[in-house]
Amino acid sequence: MWVRSEYAGELAVLSTWLSALIPWTVSYTSGIGGGALLFVRFPLVQIRYSFGVPLARGITVADPLSAAAFQQGQSVAVAYRIWIVGAAVFSLALLVSVVYYRREAWAESWSVDPVRLLGALLLTTGVVLAVATSLLVTRGFPGVPIPVGVGFLLLFGVLLLIVERTDGESESDPAA
Description:
- With 176 residues, the chain is α+β, with helices and mostly antiparallel strands.
- The chain has a domain at 5-22 and 66-162.
- It is 52% helix and 14% strand.
- The protein has helices spanning 8-21, 64-70, 77-102, 104-108, 114-138, 148-162, and strands at 25-32, 35-41, 46-51, 59-62.
- The chain has a 4-stranded antiparallel sheet.
- Helix 1 (8-21) runs antiparallel to helix 3 (77-102).
- The radius of gyration is 19 Å and the shape is elongated.
- The model is unreliable at 168-176 (pLDDT under 50).
C-alpha cells in the first residue's frame, strides 16, 4: 500500500487539517461595475476580493451562514445553503480530527475506526461541495467556479477509506 498502516492516523488528521486550508472553489468575475470580484471559498469561510467595484469593500470575509444570508433571494442561494451542509459535515470532521490527535488511544477504542470515519466525512464533504459547485455553475453565478479543493476532499476521503489497517489498529475491522 502507498502508506504504512501505523501512519494512517497521522495521515487522517493531516488530510483533514490540510483540507481546511484548500479552497473548495475559486471564482473570478470581471465586468461588474467596471471592476472585478474574486471569490475564494474555503470549507468554513469565504473571502471576496473586490477590484475597482465602487460599492464593494476591498476584502470581505464571511462564514457560510452569512454568505448564504447575503445571497438570499438570488438564484444561487440554494448553492450557498448546500455549502452550509458541507461546512457542517466538515466541522464534524475537524472536531473528530482534533479529538483523534489529542486522545489517540481513546479514539482508537471507538466502535468505528477514526481513520475510516474521517475518510467518510471528507468524502461526504467533497460530494456536498461538488453539488454546491455545480449549482453555482447552473444557477448563473457570474464567472466560472473552479473546484480546487473538491478534488482534494474526494481524494483524501477515498484514500482514508481504502488505507490498510493492521495489528489491531481498528477495533471495528474483524480482519485486523
